[in-house]
Amino acid sequence: MPGLATVFTIFALSLPAAALAQTAPSFHVKGTVVTADATSLTVQGEDGQTGTIALPVGYRLVGEKTASLAAVKPGGFVGIGSIPDGKGGQNAVEVTIFPPAMAGTGEGSYPWALRSDGTMTNATVAATVAAADGQSLSVTYKGGARVIAVPPGTPVVAIAPATPADLKPGANVSVSGATDAAGKPMAKFVVVGLNGAVPPV
User: Fold this and answer.
1) Are residues 178 and 95 in the same domain?
2) Which residues in the chain land under pLDDT 50?
3) Does residue 92 contact residue 68 with C-beta atoms inside 8 Å?
4) Which residue in 58, 114, 128, 135 has the fewest CB atoms around it within 10 Å?
5) How far apart are CA 63 and CA 79, in angstroms?
6) What are the two backbone dihedrals, phi and then psi, of residue 29, each rounded to the nearest 5 degrees?
7) Backbone CA torsion sign across 198, 98, 12, 29
8) What's the rounded Cα separation, in Å, for the pair 54 and 64?
9) What pLDDT is recorded for position 54?
10) Is residue 72 part of a domain?
11) Are 138 and 123 in contact (CB under 8 A)?
């Protein structure tokens, strides 16, 4: 897709990189919907360039709505993208709240392909702890646990159902996929912001 960044990616909600490994070149694009129909999605990327992505049979579509840390409760399942804080800990740069039916998705803590210094942790919340500079989330996952600081202003979103009707002009989207043999970008996973929400990843 000329002009739009092409990178190897795992989505924020995400499975570990090994689970998404594929031989075709893969891409991740964030931007706003220009037009959409049953088979394609035209997106203006964050760099201002516009490209069209095919929506093949079987692609996945989910919504994200704006949320807050108040909605993060012990026992809930979250995905946290984080980076080192320079003091041996981790600072969240985004928090995604999963619905109960998606608990366990991509459980674990893995290198985050969207940021070379990042970690993606999908885990169950054990506790939330207030701090002078925000909050910390204590989370557990199979084989481990960690505490991640959540600075003020960190984007928090919740996964919600979406339909193709939500892919309307101006909607914020995050699209992951791969190119076919002819070099045509084919969506595999589309996240659309609901009610003006912006997918943080």
Assistant:
1) no
2) 1-22
3) no
4) 58
5) 15
6) -130, 135
7) negative
8) 21
9) 98
10) yes
11) no
Measured between alpha carbons, how far is 92 from 128 in angstroms, rounded to an integer?
A: 13
128: tokens are 């939330």
Given this model, what pLDDT does residue 67 score? 97
* 173 in the same domain as 150: no
Same domain for 76 and 139, yes or no, is yes
Domains of the chain: total: 2
Judging by beta carbons within 10 Å of its beta carbon (0-12, 13-18, 19+), is residue 43 exposed, middle or buried? buried
Q: How many residues does the chain have?
A: 201
pLDDT (0 to 100) of residue 24:
64
Radius of gyration of the chain (CA): 17
Return the half-sphere exposure (C-beta side, CA atoms, 13 A cut-off) of residue 136.
Answer: 12
Query: Phi and psi (nearest 5°) for 114?
Result: -80, -15
Q: Could you read off the pLDDT of 181-190 as tens digits, one per residue?
A: 999 999 999 9
How far, in Å, CA of 147 to CA of 6, rounded? 32
Distance CA 4, CA 43 (A): 9
